[in-house]
Automatic annotation (TrEMBL):
GO terms for biological process: cell adhesion involved in single-species biofilm formation; negative regulation of bacterial-type flagellum-dependent cell motility; phosphorelay signal transduction system. It is an enzyme of class 2 (transferase). It comes from Phyllobacterium sophorae. Coiled coil: none annotated. This is diguanylate cyclase. It comes from the Bacteria. Its EC number is 2.7.7.65. It catalyses: 2 GTP = 3',3'-c-di-GMP + 2 diphosphate. Residues 191-323 form the GGDEF domain. Keywords: Phosphoprotein.
Amino acid sequence: ATTRDVGLESILRFPVDGTGIAKNARILLIDERPESIERIQRILSDEGMVDVQIDPQTGFFDAIQGNHDCLIISSNFSDFDPLRICAQLRSLDNTRSLPIILVADHGEETLIRRALELGVNDYVVRPLNPNELLARLRTQLRRKAYHDGLRASVVKTYEMAVTDSLTGLHNRLYLETHLATLFKRAVERRRPLSILMTDIDRFKLINDNHGHDGGDEVLREFARRLRRNVRGSDLASRYGGEEFFIVMPDTDATLAAIVAERIRREVASTQFIINQSGTTVPVTISIGIASVLPKEDSVQNLLKRADEALYGAKTSGRNRVVS
Ligand code: GH3
Ligand code: MG
Ligand code: MG
Ligand code: MG
């Protein structure tokens, strides 16, 4: 299946009807009147966990922790406008999609209209009808669950789109997007930046001798070694086939050559073990380095120089680093 299929499939599978409501919903109730709190708690006793805050400020800070599935808030407090909280919650990333249900008193039409304009999702009017409150709450919980599922699915689809499925490294799409950003930043800040273009030597022979699966295992093991040898701030990616790319911010040509040589030696000095058969495979790599020059004009030039350096490493005998 393609990345697109999988993303779409998980969106379609997500329950949108009434059957998928979690019984463990976490509801936040902000209300200061004891008899109202007690009534709402009784109505919700089967729906999940209800956290109660009687002070609106404290309730606000509780809400922005992002741990709740719905906020139920009373329309009146002795000296506080609850709509201020609602407006703030709508402006914060963590709570932008938190469902809010307002519990209003009879005759508060103006306040209800203001609340809905601010993005409060729904309201109920006292005296509370238990079935109505439950129905409105469940609608909001369902909407929240759907929204959360959709967001998780979008994140997952994105991650798949920028990850190489064989090695788990970033892929070419990710590299090309982020290299442009890192390059621009380096030039603007006059910071060094180097890239390593890495290609496994005679990889066709490895495939020929150990099969395509054996070749795949070599690629995976190479990716693991690569990861071990770069910093968290470096961007390691599989560019395609048996070509890998490492982008190293804040790294000048001298340091890049040291890192490249360390990787080359680590690959050449310890044979790769192909798990299934226990066969050992000697592997060597060639690396071309390019570093951003003062007044570097484009990513394309940088890539071109790395490619030329790699070509130089290949033609001068392989298993070497060329700058
Ligand atoms: P050189 O030293 O000049 O780089 O020689 P080479 O054999 O590595 O050169 P070439 O780039 O021509 O061959 C790369 C081979 O990698 C060809 C292709 O069949 C193989 N290959 C590409 N992608 C994969 C993959 O995902 N898995 C495996 N096992 N092989 C792959
Ligand atoms: Mg080649
Ligand atoms: Mg090769
Ligand atoms: Mg190649």
